[in-house]
Design goal:
The protein is mainly beta. The protein has one helix and four strands; from the N terminus they run E-E-E-E-H. It is globular and about 40 Å long.
Length: 83
């Protein structure tokens, strides 16, 4: 399971936000579904200059379950940012 402030990768396209499978973002919050459905993941997206450009909510199932080495926010700052 993804942890807060880790880099996550999209498992599928999310067309309503123009996001593509394989895009990366930072998980900033996990929110319950108001009617008991699937949890939502609040993601912060960055551009190539490492500037925050958007915050979106996607279903948990839109995120790949694999862990990535150096995927913490601190690791991204230390090793050159988000790709």
């Amino acid at each position: 399971m993804a942890q807060l402030y880790e880099e996550v990768t999209l498992a599928r396209d999310v067309p309503e936000y123009n996001l593509k499978q394989g895009d990366s973002a930072i998980l900033v919050d996990i929110v319950p579904h108001p009617k008991g459905g699937e949890e939502g993941y609040v993601l912060e997206l960055f551009n190539e200059a490492e500037e925050s450009v958007n915050v979106v909510i996607v279903p948990k199932s839109a995120i790949q379950e694999e862990e990535k080495e150096g995927s913490s926010l601190l690791g991204m700052v230390r090793y050159g940012g988000i790709n």
